[in-house]
Design goal:
Low-confidence stretches: 46-127, 140-173
Structural class: alpha/beta
Number of strands: 16
Helix content: 40-55%
CATH topology of the largest domain: Rossmann fold
Distance between the termini: 133 Å
Mean pLDDT: 76
């Protein structure tokens, strides 16, 4: 029985007619108009040949139907990926819908192209219905999982909560693992920290502390803290501290709620820093321009007067003093000067930051501010901290003044002393140590320019007799 007739061919698109013509071996069919092409197909195809043409059309229609259905299958696979975190029943529903689609594919081919189109349309409708049912089931499952359990207080509700917690942890959200960590804080350069459980050596058991927690609790290296721990997330290597319970044996809330460093009452420096050095320059500084705990001091002089060398000598004289926390910040220094400072001594190295003159002024200011921030926290907790800075010339004027202004003697806590090198005094210092260019060039000692040096309220540091001796020595220097 012939399966191709003129009315059906006329209703077919030109592409389908080309496919049939190619199947029956019709020559030059692409140059023919549609009406002529239909005549040629009907004239060239006979009973058995027309069956072959019908088979060819059918073969052409089947891939075309699959191509038309491919986006639906892709959407089905995408839904399965999105449902990885959903209940298993929802994923099964998506799988069932895909299986129904595959079965329907087997029914798409029919003996005629008209029946094939009707079957394809029916299949599309079934696909839409299956997809709609799957989406509805997904929405119902999501709503059920998001809704609060009515029996949350029962054992079943708690079990579901535990399962939900484990599921979230599996997705990388982490959860408390039920243990508390205790160790010593080591603050990193980026503001975050690690809780070293076996200080000072790092280990795989160390716990990460976020920068926000460091700032909020004003942690500094050396603090001993405790707190609960959560398991690492998928992208993390170390467990993290959930919260900080105690700091140095005190509740973290009481430490964090203390007064701001800038709001603490201050006093003039009244306790002299004993240098105990036999070097004539340091001896002159100790008695003629005395430094105290909480002093704001600059070592000033033109290039080549030995400011960095003098700062290094002060460090050597102070590093053995009991009860002092020494920190060195090198900003805008020469690489050779950076290499001269001990980087890893028994206490872990005095240099908190080291940037050469190649670093930008902003980078230098940030490094100095981080070191001073830690020093402020220590001073607020009662420690006496000395920060040596070499030097301030590479910073913006306001940043240099802000760094120098951090020094102060706290009435009810500790002290922060800042001793920095600069080409000239900034203003606001309690002590200015000026170096003499001619003496430095000739190699004479001491190289102190007493006439340009001064200490405010020197009598609080060396007594009235010492202050009188300083005034007499300066008068002599000015008269010379």
């Amino acid at each position: 029985m012939a399966v191709l007739d003129r009315s059906e061919l006329e209703a077919s698109p030109l592409a389908d007619l080309h496919a049939i013509a190619d199947q029956i071996g019709l020559d030059g069919f692409r140059r023919l108009r549609k009406a002529d092409l239909i005549d040629a197909i009907l004239g060239e195809s006979g009973g058995e040949e027309r069956d072959g043409a019908d088979d060819g059309a059918e073969e052409q229609e089947r891939p075309k139907a699959r191509r038309r259905r491919t986006p639906r299958l892709r959407r089905g696979r995408g839904s399965e990926r999105e449902e990885d975190e959903q209940p298993e029943s929802v994923a099964d529903d998506v799988g069932s819908a895909s299986a129904e689609d595959d079965e329907q594919d087997e029914q798409d081919a029919g003996p005629t192209r008209a029946r094939s189109r009707r079957a394809s349309a029916d299949t599309d409708d079934e696909d839409e219905a299956a997809a709609g049912a799957t989406r509805a089931r997904s929405r119902r499952a999501s709503a059920a999982s998001d809704a609060p359990d009515e029996d949350a207080d029962t054992g079943a509700g708690r079990a579901r909560s535990r399962r939900g917690g484990r599921s979230r942890a599996g997705r990388g959200e982490g959860e408390e693992d039920g243990r508390a960590a205790e160790g010593v804080v080591e603050v990193l350069g980026n503001g975050s920290a690690f809780l070293r459980v076996d200080p000072p050596e790092p280990s795989d058991e160390d716990v990460y502390i976020s920068a926000a927690q460091v700032r909020r609790c004003e942690l500094v290296s050396g603090d001993r803290v405790t707190g609960p721990v959560r398991t690492p997330r998928r992208s993390e290597r170390y467990p993290s501290l959930v919260r900080i319970d105690t700091i140095n044996g005190q509740p973290a809330d009481s430490v964090a709620d203390g007064a701001r460093y800038e709001d603490l009452p201050v006093a003039w420096p009244s306790e002299r820093l004993a240098l105990g050095s036999e070097e004539r320059t340091l001896e002159a500084i100790e008695w003629l321009t005395p430094l105290g705990k909480g002093s704001r001091a600059t070592i000033v002089g033109p290039r080549g007067t030995g400011k960095s060398r003098t700062l290094r000598r002060l460090y050597e004289a102070l590093k053995g003093a009991e009860g002092l926390e020494l920190t060195v910040v090198l900003v805008g220094a020469r690489p050779e000067e950076i290499a001269d400072w001990p980087q890893n001594d028994a206490e872990g190295g005095p240099v908190a930051a080291a940037l050469s003159f190649a670093a930008s002024a902003d980078a230098q200011a940030q490094a100095l501010e981080r070191a001073l921030d830690s020093a402020r926290r220590l001073a607020a907790r009662g420690a006496d901290v000395v920060v040596l800075v070499d030097g301030l010339d590479g910073l913006h004027q306001q940043a240099a003044r802000r760094a120098l202004a951090a020094a102060r003697n706290l009435r009810e806590a500790g002290s922060l002393t800042v001793i920095a090198t600069a080409s000239a005094a900034l203003g606001g210092e309690t002590t200015v140590i000026a170096l003499d260019t001619a003496l430095a060039a000739s190699g004479g000692e001491p190289i102190l320019d007493l006439a340009a040096s001064a200490t405010l309220r020197a009598e609080l540091l060396v007594g009235e007799d010492g202050a009188e001796a300083i005034r007499k020595a300066r008068a002599d220097a000015l008269a010379a």
